[in-house]
Amino acid sequence: MSDARLSDRGAVRGRRWSWTDPKLRSSVIQIALGLVLVWLAWSFYANAEANLSRLGIASGFSFLDDRAGFAISQSLIPYNENMSYGRAFLVGLLNTLLVAFLGVILATILGFLMGVARLSRNVVIKALASAYVEVTRNLPPLFQILFWYLAVLATLPSPRQSWGLGLQPIFSGIASGLSAIGLGVLATPFSGLAAAVGAPDVYVNNRGLILPRPVFGEGSGAILIAVLVALVASFVLARWARKRREATGRPFPVFWSGLALIVVLPLLAAAATGFPLHIETPELRGFNFVGGLSVMPEFVALLLALSTYTAGFIAEIVRSGILAVSKGQTEAAHSLGLRGGPTLRLVVIPQAMRVIVPPLTSQYLNLTKNSSLGVAVGYPDLFAIFAGTTLNQTGQAIEIIAMTMAVYLVISIVTSLIMGWYNKRVALVER
Amino acid sequence: MSDQTLSPHVFVSSVLLEPAPPPVSDRGPVRWARAHLFGSVPQVLLTLFGIWLVFAVIPPLVQFFLIDAVWEGTDRKACLPADVGHPVGACWPFIWAKINQLTYGFYPADERWRVNVVYALGAVLLLPLLIQKVPYKRLNAILFFGVYPVVAFVLLTGGNFGLKRFLLGYLGFDGLFPIGATVAGLSVAFWADFVVSSALLALGAAALARFVAGPGAGLGAARNTLSALGILGAVLLAADIDVGLQPVETRLWGGLLVTLVIAVTGITASLPFGILLALGRRSHLPLVKICSILFIEFWRGVPLITVLFFATYMLPLFLPGQLTIDGLLRAVVGVALFASAYMAEVVRGGLQAIPKGQYEGAMALGLPGSLKMRLVVLPQALKLVIPGIVNNFIGLFKDTTLVLIVSIFDLLGAMRAAFTDPNWATPTTLFTGFGFAGIVYFVFCFGMSRYSMALEKRLDRARHH
Questions:
Q1: Are residues B138 and B193 in the same domain?
Q2: ipTM > 0.90, yes or no
Q3: Which of A78, A261, A363, B167 has the fewest CB within 10 Å, making it most exposed?
Q4: How many domains, in total, are found in chain B?
């Protein structure tokens, strides 16, 4: 009776088209999905072609060579309105990268500080850090950008009444404080000090931030080379010291020797070339400042808002990373005779980093993507220049939005590749 | 030897001595202060710095928002220090004057009761859903996620869509039905088309099921198709019937209304869509998997604002020329797609955390794939990732502010527009406005995060039982 079933041919003949057959089902689903996708792509293409010709919009990327015809208020590379859209794109991209880069650094510092402060035994510090985290995390980033721009920076004094920051205002502040509480005798040395250090270094007003500017004279290339050499040398030193520690167990003061290298080498180079570098301090003339480096308020608002907002998230990541290292690790390190500092540096932080790095990466990416919100206050980043002004002028929405999205996608992919590599390096090697 | 031989001078205490109390400096409030405030010199400095910071921030805020604040007035004169004669803090009359704009936008004044009904209905349905002890959760969920959106939609837009054609009409069988005839505001052509199309679709489904799954499956497939079409029909009927409400275009909506509409629609749409994407990403079918991965990674890699620009400027070029989509709807779809990609990653995390034994156990019980997911895997996975889901909701709520860049006036956009009113131009208007909007955003986001923490704690407790 089982002959037919045993024979191959019988099995094939007896096989029915059944929905429960996984192979058949999967190919039917995939063919259907493929057909839908092809239909979508085709109808998008056909509609776009019809719409573009109806509206008289050009297509293709040749517009990138056309004259842009608009000015950009902040540019890291030479640019004027006679240059091309392609050049404007580059200016915007660099502005985006600049604010993202500085934002990441500021947010990391502030975030780590706040994360550690939230774990402090000091209740006042802990409460303050918690309040900071809750407030910054629960307000929309765009709200924070507009707040800094409209409510804080725009209400600052005009250039003539600028606030000065630096050593001079600190000393004169102490002096006036002391004389206010009736200790005029003690105030004299401070006002002397204030006069000795000269004018403030940094000015804040409603037109932004005015910083001192380094001026590179003839031969400053040598200093730059010295800095690079010092960096490479301290990197090599660190590797050598680690190898030696792993082999012999003898530590080496890498931090201090590296710092000495980075400070001393450029100083030597500067001395050899006769100090070609000097700092140009801003000076108030008439109604505005002359000299120095002026930073536009849009940039300051965007940078402040992005870094304080992201720092709130980083603080929580750092806190959970440190809490994820079990207390036994600290106790074991103490019982080996390590003191507080080395315990933190050699035992707790390396283990916490494993937990911290992946979410930290996505916060960095979020910050970069959020930098596109600068368009709301008029910061000329990639999005404002390209998807804003250029799109308005050319109308080539498809190319422009695709290019803008592609830039952010590339940044995301590159960052996640780098972080993936780093993550693999620090990941726990299971034995 | 007996006891009596022992020396009478030996004394053995019969009670355990109480330990001596620690020195004064090491107990009670002193000890606490030493441990938490003044342990060492840096600690003391930190404490002093913290106390100074508190005093530098809190009293001026209280002074500004409460003590020096102006509470009554009709225009900017009430808030000008020169007119009032003392330093002026927050200018609350500005908020009172703009409160309608902030909550309804330009929604016609006579129709605002509809928005209020939607707000009230939402609160009435949502609160019992959030409180664990209230019974009838299932009915409540159906009402909130199924019925409420339709009611809110009809109330807010006014309904009476004037639908003209269904499937057959679009396929070119226009002549079959009498164009133009209406009954109670409903087009006869559309509804006749709908009924005939449904019957045809059910027949087709039955035939297909019979073909692929055997003769027994036909009836079930027809029934399923008909019930799905019945739900669709009910929704369409609600949107199409003339309920006598004046239609209100979405470009008149604004303020908190837009914020909540975008947030709630985004939240309700992103969860199911995100679950589908997460399942797609773990699918065994290569094409499904690749499509899901591409979709998720694309949306996660670009800023939301480019998505909104895509929906506003690029999408219309991809659609047939005569088809125009409402601006608010475009933004909502953009936000929902964007949020779904993030939701998919959160759900995937939960799916990965479910041990393989659960999948195998479900298979051993003979559950087919869809039931295995629905009854065994997803309930556990979703429970695991509730904090992540709520975090996404909070993110989505904050992201609704971005629509102001594509000229839709949400709460922040309405506030920004209110700032430009010269009748209220005072030195403190900006701070008052930001203070008010900040409080609203903070209450929503902070509330959500606290609720999620409480929920997490409860579920955690349940897991340990």
A1: no
A2: no
A3: A78
A4: 3
